[in-house]
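the two lines:
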Amino acid sequence: MNRVKLITQVLFILGFALIIGLIVNAVNPKGISIFDDGERYSKNVQEKSIKDLVTNPYDTTNNNKPKTLDKPPNISKEGFVKPQHIKLDLAKLFYDQGALFIDARMKVQYDSGHVKGAINIPYGEFLAKSKEEKIDIMKKYNKEGTIVCYCSGGECEVSIDLAYEIAKIGYNYLNIYRGGYPEWEKAGYPVEK
Amino acid sequence: MKIFENKILILILRLFLGGLFIYASWSKLLNPEDFGRAIRGYDMMPLGFISVLSVFLPFLEFFSGLFLIFGIFKRGSVFIITAMLVMFLIGLTQAYARGLSIDCGCFSVTPTTETQGGSYLLIRIIEDIFMLIAAFLIYNFERKKIKTITSN
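prediction for all of em together
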C-alpha cells in the first residue's frame, strides 16, 4: 500500500468523522455551539473587584447605579448579557446587600455546607430542563437583582455554566464567583449546613 | 518476529483495539459539553478550539475503531488511532507531570473520585503505551501480510 492511499484513507476518515460529528451535534439536544470561544473558562479572565465598581454596569446594589456607563454591558452574540466574574471582596459586598446566591453543585454537596441563605440549583438538572421550566424555576427571583453563582472553586466550572444558562433566559445581572465555597468558608464568611 | 505475522493474532489485536476505541467513545458521543470540560482540564489546547474538538474527537474514535474492526480502511484507521494515542499520551503525561487534579475523560465523561488525578492517570499512561504497541503491530504486520499475498 502506498503513501498516497494511506493519506487518502486518513483524510476520508477525518472528514467523515467531522461531518457526522457536526450533524449529530446539530440534532443532539445536548449539542454545543462549535463557535464557542470558551473565553469564560479562561483562568486569565478578569475578575471584578470592589475597586472596579465605579463604572461597573452590573452594579445594581445599594442604589449605587453607575453615573456613566463608559461602555455598554457585555452582550453576547446570542443577545444576552454576559455574566461577569467577581472576586471574593465583591461577592461579599453583593452578599451584604442581599444578592441572591445560587449554589450550582449537587444537592449532596450543598447539604454538606453552603453560603448562608444560598439556594441550590444543580447545573446538570437545570440544563436538562426545557426553557419554560427554567423560566418557571427562576420566576420568583427578581430579574433585575444581582445574582451570584458559585460552586466548589478550583477547576469547578458549573458556576460558569449555570450563570450562562440563567443569563440566557433574560437575567441581566449574573455574577460568577469562581473562588467558590472553599474560599468563602476559609474567609470566615457566613455559611450554613 | 514470526509470531506477529500470525493472522489470528493481528485480528485479535484489531478487534481489541477497535473495541476499546468504540467503548471509549460511547459516553462522549452525545455529551460534547462534558467531554469539552474534560479536555479543558488538560490545559493544553486553545480554548476556542475545544468546542470543535469535543464534537469531532469522539466520532473520530468511534469510526476509526469501527473501521478497524470491520477491516475497512485498516491502515488509515490504525494510523489515526496511533496519532490519537500519541496525543493522549502527551496529554496524560504532561497532566501527570504537572500534578493536575483533572478528570481523565478517557473512558467516561462522568467524573468520579477514582477517575481523578494521580495514580489513575499513571494507569492510563501505561495502558496507552500498551495500546500504542498493539497499534504499531497492526500497522506493520497487516502490511507484511498484504505483501506476501501479492508476491505469491
